[in-house]
Fold Pyrroloquinoline-quinone synthase.
Amino acid sequence: MTKILSPEELEEELRAIGAAQYHDKHPFHKLLHGGKLNKGQVQAWALNRYCYQSAVPRKDAALMSRCHDRDLRREWIHRITDHDGQGDEEGGIERWLVLTDGLGLDRDYVISRKGALPETVFAVEAYVNFVRDKTLVEAVASSLTELFAPSIHKERISGMLENYDFISDDVMAYFKRRLTQAPRDANFALEYCKQNARTPEAQQGVLDALRFKTHVLWAQLDALYLAYVDPGMIPPGAFVPDAA
Ligand SMILES: O=C(O)c1cc(C(=O)O)c2c(n1)C(=O)C(=O)c1cc(C(=O)O)[nH]c1-2
């Protein structure tokens, strides 16, 4: 890309990437939201997704560690407390564990990440490393998948409540809270990228960062599909659902 884009054109290109390759299109999500998975497969999803949840505050801490702009740190810090909690506010990771408890998984086993798929571990760590190593505006841009998260969260809340008798309203609390948190965070990050990516190279970096992040998300679902749907190729050491 040689031409500099206006901030509006940059936003258009970012939205086009999301529309084309966000993980709402993944076959595993279609099965999950459509009630086509059994409890063991939903357990596998929640257990693997815990790795992503627990990596998010680590990548946000990595971003802040390299940020010399106090205003940006003041804005970014709530992302860490949103997940880790603070004072009486339990935080998103605790709400995720309410979901895995509700699915009958042992908390210590979930937190240990021992049953996670190898691809999950590699993908989430690649996200932490990307944020640590790339430019600040690329690091911010890699969070922009969240622009597309509210609609998948809505679909998940209604789809899972309707289709699974082992899912109740209280275990979906994590996603309900994200419906307000994600748009606030995504809009801030989008404005930051529009204001701060002002050369063709920086704009290309922002677009590539979003593409990279869609790959981080997609790879995790590919791994779940291969291991727990078809052909059922569970790697040694990974979580094995009860036969029941
Ligand atoms: O359920 C989802 O599909 C989904 C997607 C994403 C995303 O697009 O990265 C996030 C979340 N959920 C989420 O709950 C969350 O806290 C979150 C933080 C981030 C980020 O990159 O900083 N993405 C996401």
Summary: The first helix runs from residue 7 to 21. The pocket of pyrroloquinoline quinone is lined by residues 56, 143, 145-146, 149, 152-153, 178, 217 (CB under 6 Å). Residues 7-228 form a domain with the Heme Oxygenase; Chain A fold (CATH 1.20.910.10). The chain has one domain: 7-228.
